[in-house]
Amino acid sequence: MEKVQALIRKNAVMVFSKSYCKFCNKVKDIFRTEKIDFHSIELDLMCPEGAVIQDALAKLTKQTTVPNVFLHGEHVGGCDATVKLFRDGTLAERALGTYRKRDFDLVVIGGGSGGLAAAKEAASLGRKVAVCDFVTPSPRGTKWGLGGTCVNVGCIPKKLMHKSALLGADIKDSNHFGWEKVERAKHNWEKMAYEVKSHILSLNFGYRSDLMLKKVQYYNAYATFLDKHKLKLVDKNENVIEITSDNIIVAVGGRPNYPDIPGAREYGITSDDLFYLQNCPGKTLIVGASYVALECAGFLAGFGLDVTVMVRSILLRGFDQQMAYMIGAHMESHGVKFLKNTIPLRITEKSPGSPGELAVAYKMCDGKVKEQQFNTVMFATGRSPCTSNIGLEEIGVELNKRNGKIAVDDYERSSVKNIFAIGDVRDRTPELTPVAIQAGRLLAKRLYGQHDEPMDYKMVPTTVFTPLEYGCVGYSEEDLIALFGPEDIEVYHTHFQPLEFTLPERDKNKCYGKLICLKSAGEKVVGFHILGPNAGEITQGFALAMKLNAKKSDFDDLVGIHPTCAEIFTTMLISKASGISVEKSSC
Ligand code: FAD
Ligand code: NA7
User: Fold this and answer.
1) Rounded to the nearest whole angstrom, what is the distance from the C-alpha of residue 150 to the centroid of ligand 1?
2) Which of 159, 257, 275, 290 has most ligand 2 atoms within 8 Å of CB, for mutation?
3) What is the pTM of this model?
4) Which CATH architecture has domain 2-96?
5) Which of 107, 130, 292, 451 is most buried, by CB atoms within 10 Å?
6) 161-196 pLDDT, tens per residue?
7) CATH H-level superfamily of 105-256+384-448
């Protein structure tokens, strides 16, 4: 007993071990990778003294097994207990004897999709957790409640407005299904905006009560780093407090960019404002051609508004370009105007109002400058992460200089060990709500639960909610050709007309699906693309098949559900290479 006590006293990190024990080796490996000096003795190699030492340890700690770990004289426990300290980031400090109890085990900055998921998961694993969330009003003064981008100014209002536009199209079609007097139907922006806002408010309330229920401390305050464990929180009344935490997750998302042209901030709006406009935006110009731009253009046109999209280069950069072209062509055929290869130069106010009159000067690719009048100008010109003024670089957190996002390893850990990043601020991450949620949950489980695996960012399905929805998983055709060469790629494809489009004779040869297969991998399906109604619902299911490495033959073996759009993927026989037309001439 005396020898045991002397060893514990003399060595800051003392491991009683057995040479053949894999748990002992795991613990010693952790100390080595963390560059923590430790002293260990192998009880099995100390015959007969080892057994006596183990008895003494059992008396001292009530633990009969090895490894038996002590840090600065304090008994930690075995492998699981040591791994727990390693995971939650306090092992090194405890080994050095510098650990002091902090206010929280975990503080999450950002109460959006990722932040809330991580906070709730960590709290359910028994940890003391806080969330700080603060919405800086848009230049127009729009602000909103807890829940982040998705709930307040992203997926939720966007999908509800998309649905509102789809209903308009259905109302027009309904005459062909026997409904009468439908031509009298008229869209009321104010009513829709009120309903959408009310729903969002109920979600904000739900998030707040959920945090209370899960005993997560909520600070409605803006957080900045004072050091790697300490944050300054400032609320809307400028009250300041400081809190400390062992670990900190940065999940602050991003905000829309404005182009650097006169009048942009004074007179323009972004998606942050669009969903909260109390009056119909009227004749609208949308600058930008990625999915936020096209989705908003789609639903505004669906309400019968005069909509123009100003495209600097291509539609939907990063998405399959054949599909992007088809989306544009469909929108154009439904009245959306496109100003291609054009950039805005300045916005001036012609007359104030809600909406007022704005003049937009723009430059076309031939260098000609023109001017047009609009009631509303909306910028969908990308988003920037909210990482620039919260003290990250000052405490050593590395950012990707090109985009301002936080550089992390596969386990979401930044260059500062106790600081993590998830969601839209994490570099090399699809900017999608379910991605942020999954990453947040898994990170909390890795820190405080029994989970070891990193988040899998591959084969993430997504949908662009344009009037004809576009769903995809995996690679675009051009990316695959660039990666594997055209000879290794087989593309199966078809146009289709949903049954519900036949009576109104709508959109023949506008819906389309394709499967892109890798020949050298037995026609494994590596790209799935669909343009048609409910593409999101269809894509979600097939994404599972793709994740499980489905081959074209598996799609062929699958029995379809008739009559649906999804069934086309079970009977897709024509390859692009064959050159056979896939246009439908009859139903
Ligand atoms: P966010 O949800 O942005 O949350 C970050 C929170 O942190 C915000 O509340 C912010 O105010 C707060 N914050 C920032 N800085 C601080 C600070 N210093 N202190 C305290 N709080 C701070 N994704 C989909 O999956 N499907 C869709 O259909 C879809 N549609 C979209 C439509 C639009 C118009 C937009 C803009 C986005 C859309 N997205 C969609 C993307 C999705 O909304 C985001 O990927 C997701 O919300 C990111 O979550 P997050 O947790 O990273 O950050
Ligand atoms: P994206 O996907 O970054 O696309 C930005 C679009 O805006 C793209 O079409 C750009 O054209 C265009 N753009 C950017 N700057 C300008 C200027 N100055 N003038 C004209 N056009 C410009 O942004 P989104 O807003 O659609 O979406 C961002 C994220 O939010 C997205 O990932 C979702 O998760 C939610 P380019 O192709 O560069 O020529």
Assistant:
1) 5
2) 290
3) 0.95
4) 3-Layer(aba) Sandwich (3.40)
5) 107
6) 999 999 999 999 999 999 999 988 999 999 999 999
7) FAD/NAD(P)-binding domain (3.50.50.60)
